[in-house]
């Protein structure tokens, strides 16, 4: 396997644009790439684009009728077929929607191919992570489910065990749905409790079909959970399951919307904790998945202050050139922020915190809501993997 890391990037992904005022502002992608370049991270890995996913690739997850509907909606956004999700304010059709969506999917699929084929040890597509899209419908700002397509391509190439780790604040429902009955895929989602956040799924009792019992893992954290709680839950569940499952590749989704500044959710993580989550995923890829790691972006609607910083950290970690937390943001990037937004950007690369968490092995408090959430997941899933809850 090559030690090279690869960043999948094509300027065309910024065409994924639901229009003025929509939370999924493509400026977050432009500013992330600009910060990657300002930090010199583009010189620490290979930056390469990939073609859009073709119909045969999209068909690994999506129904042909849906793909046809996306194409039609791209050409006539004002006239869309009912039943495919484009009549929602979340997913309004826009010109060029099929092209931009399939381009994002193509980057993730190419990253999966590079990692599996040994061309790169790690690959990053921060434009990806569109984990809500369903086989026959758009959902939650997501048109094509690039994460599920990347996993499906790994399986097509011969992988028999792929792990998916979703760190977005929202449940990774589309990826879970795609592999609900497939014992070759382990999906783990750490998210805000469905009582208080879209999409309303991701309860610990959702553990997969009978043919893949224990293949879906959901840690549903109470609103307001912060650094220490989130990191405790992450480390209390993920490494043991990866050790038991033995994946040949790890695909992770790094939604930035767990941050306390995000306007659409209610977890209160700092950028420092998000960075530790990315470091953990990287370490687990080496420890449990033979180093094969595909890292994706996801949600994140603090498009200046949060998203570019955490995804730049993700790129640095994948390149084995991590950005130190105390690093000051380059002045050239701040100028780019002002030029694009007429606003100011953050001055340092993290929030200046140093999160610490109590290891699960030290004991738990049955009255603590976070510990209750962790225990519910372990009790629901661990027996399927021969583990003690």
UniProtKB/TrEMBL annotation:
Histone deacetylase domain location is 22-315
Q: Name one Pfam family in it.
A: Hist_deacetyl
Q: Does the keyword Transcription apply?
A: no
Biological process annotations from GO: acetoin catabolic process; epigenetic regulation of gene expression
User: CDD domains this protein is in?
Assistant: HDAC_AcuC_like
Which InterPro entries does this one have? AcuC, HDACs, His_deacetylse_dom, His_deacetylse_dom_sf, Ureohydrolase_dom_sf
Query: Which key words tag this protein in UniProt?
Result: Acetoin catabolism
Which pathway, per its entry?
Ketone degradation; acetoin degradation
**Family per similarity comment:** Belongs to the histone deacetylase family.
| Protein name, as recorded | Acetoin utilization protein AcuC
Organism from which the protein derives: Streptomyces zhaozhouensis
Q: What is the lineage of its organism?
A: Bacteria, Bacillati, Actinomycetota, Actinomycetes, Kitasatosporales
């Amino acid at each position: 396997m090559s030690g090279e890391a690869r960043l999948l990037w094509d300027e065309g992904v910024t065409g994924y644009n639901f229009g003025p005022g929509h939370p999924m502002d493509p400026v977050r992608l432009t500013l992330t790439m600009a910060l990657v370049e300002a930090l010199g991270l583009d010189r620490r890995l290979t930056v390469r684009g990939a073609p859009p996913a073709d119909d045969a690739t999209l068909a690994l997850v999506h129904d042909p009728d849906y793909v046809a509907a996306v194409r039609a909606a791209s050409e006539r956004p004002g006239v869309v077929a009912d039943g495919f999700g484009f009549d929602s304010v979340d997913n309004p059709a826009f010109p060029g929607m099929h092209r931009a969506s399939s381009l994002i999917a193509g980057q993730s699929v190419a990253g999966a191919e590079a990692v599996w084929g040994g061309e790169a040890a790690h690959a990053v597509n921060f434009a990806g992570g569109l984990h809500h899209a369903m086989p026959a419908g758009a959902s939650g700002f997501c048109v094509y489910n690039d994460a599920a397509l990347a996993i499906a391509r790994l399986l097509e190439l011969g992988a028999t065990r792929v792990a998916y780790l979703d760190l977005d604040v929202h449940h990774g429902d589309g990826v879970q749905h795609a592999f609900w009955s497939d014992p070759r895929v382990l999906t783990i989602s750490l998210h805000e409790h469905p009582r208080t956040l879209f999409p309303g799924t991701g309860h610990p009792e959702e553990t997969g079909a009978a043919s893949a019992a224990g293949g879906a893992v959901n840690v549903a954290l109470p609103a307001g959970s912060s650094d220490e709680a989130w990191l405790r839950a992450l480390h209390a569940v993920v490494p043991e399951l990866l050790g038991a499952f033995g994946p040949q590749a790890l695909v992770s989704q790094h939604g930035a919307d767990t941050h306390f500044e995000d306007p659409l959710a209610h977890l209160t993580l700092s950028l420092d904790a998000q960075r530790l989550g990315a470091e953990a995923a990287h370490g687990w890829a080496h420890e449990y998945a033979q180093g094969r790691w595909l890292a994706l972006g996801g949600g994140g609607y603090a498009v200046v202050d949060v998203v570019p910083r955490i995804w730049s950290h993700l790129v640095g970690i994948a390149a084995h050139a991590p950005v130190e937390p105390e690093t000051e943001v380059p002045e050239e990037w701040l100028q780019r922020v002002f030029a694009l937004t007429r606003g100011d950007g953050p001055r340092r690369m993290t929030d200046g915190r140093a999160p610490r968490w109590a290891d699960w092995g030290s004991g738990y408090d049955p009255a603590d809501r976070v510990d209750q959430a962790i225990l519910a997941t372990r009790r629901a899933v661990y027996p399927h993997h021969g583990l003690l809850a």
